[in-house]
Amino acid sequence: MNEQITRHQFIRNSAKIAAGIAAGVGVMGAMSSKSSGQTTSWPWPYAEIDAEEGRIRGHLGYYARGCSYGAYHAIVSLLSEKVGAPYTTMPTEFLEWGRGGAWSWGTLCGALTGALTAINLCQTKAAAEKIGNELIGWYCGALFPSDVSNQYAVAKTFRDNRYDKTLPQSSCGSPLCHASVSTWCTFSKFKRGGSERSERCGRLTGDVAAYSIKLMNDELKQQFKALYTTPAVVTYCMTCHGPALRDDTLGKMTCRVCHGDHTGSAPPTSVTADQLPDAAFKLHQNYPNPFNPSTTIRFSIPKDAIVSLIIYDIHGRAIKNLISYEDYGRGSFEVHWDGRDNANQAVPSGTYFAHLFAGTHSKTIKLSLNK
């Protein structure tokens, strides 16, 4: 016989059932937390790991499951071996989606996606943000693939040696996958679908993993130093697009790589132009060299182009953006460097490199600072 249940009984019985379910879920949650090494505690512990092993694993991981997985797996697999739980509880394959800027949509570079995810996993909120900002800024100015990765490929140090030749280097000025790839393809003359471009991104993945590890190791040892500062050209763009006027965009990267200068006027710079046209692309040796405390760098370009002139240290880090992807006309120019980095701090004595990009042209000179 069916028994009729009153509304009051239904509510009372439902409350009992809900309480029982909640108690069960709480017990299961506690059991899960206990059995998994308390994976809900954040950030996870970080220990110093080998950046060069990370470079090699990042390159190998790229060929296994793509750039995002490669960078993430390189870092987390090393921490899994060094720290153990909780890193041993999470599959690294879940970062595969970031390859090619999210399943080849060309958005944020997958190597950055993987590395930033790993950084955010094992650093405090404040540390992750400052390390992440430095990593992205470094990526925009770095020469990819790095000298180290090119040397590893030639020496067959990588664990996947399908391409063992030195590849052309370029900087992209943007953390976006499509800008990074297209800039390199334009400069190198290699096709996007070719084995050369694929190997370039494999080496880049290793480079990003290695530099991420270096930054986290520096933070652990309280030796972290930010080198990246927002380029003047970004500040210039934000005078219109920032909160004071249009207030219609967010961003820290150099806009002109993709958008050019649509204002009809160039931003003020420290560059002086010689009005006599020069039909050849040239980057002259700086004068004086060696120098202390300042030196002059002269260059010429045969036609209108977006120009960048960046000073790198011996580790391949961009320490000073003398020209940040700005529009230049045909002619000869000179730039002065006062031996200071982007944070306006005097750099130590040593060897530095000035790298000029102008359209599809590129050249590097060596500078010596003797104090």
Strand order of the largest sheet: 1-6-3-2
User: From the helix content, strand content and strand pairing, which structural class follows?
Assistant: alpha+beta
Helical percent range?
40-55%
Overall mean pLDDT stands at: 86
Gyration radius, rounded:
26 Å
Number of helices: 10
Report the order of strands and helices.
HHHHHHHHHHEEEEEEEE
Total beta strand runs: 8
What is the approximate shape? globular
Total separate domains: 2
Largest sheet: 4 strands, antiparallel
- C-alpha end-to-end distance: 100 Å
Low-confidence stretches: 1-5, 14-37
Provide the β-strand percentage band.
15-25%
Give the gist of this structure.
With 371 residues, the chain is of the alpha+beta class. 40% of the residues lie in helices and 15% in strands.
Task: Chart the SSEs and their pairings.
Blueprint: H1 7-35, H2 51-65, H3 67-82, H4 110-122, H5 125-141, H6 147-154, H7 177-188, H8 195-220, H9 232-241, H10 256-259, E1 272-274, E2 282-283, E3 295-301, E4 305-312, E5 318-328, E6 331-337, E7 350-358, E8 361-369
Antiparallel strand pairs: 1-6, 2-3, 3-6, 4-5, 4-7, 7-8
Describe the structure.
The chain is α+β, with helices and mostly antiparallel strands and 371 residues long. It folds into two domains: 51-220, no CATH class; 242-369, Immunoglobulin-like (Sandwich). Helices cover 40% and strands 15% of the residues. It has helices at residues 7-35, 51-65, 67-82, 110-122, 125-141, 147-154, 177-188, 195-220, 232-241, 256-259, and strands spanning 272-274, 282-283, 295-301, 305-312, 318-328, 331-337, 350-358, 361-369. The strands form two sheets. The protein has a four-stranded antiparallel sheet, with no helix packed on it. Strands 5-4-7-8 form a four-stranded antiparallel sheet, with no helix packed on it. The longest helix is centred in the first third of the chain and has 29 residues, at 7-35.
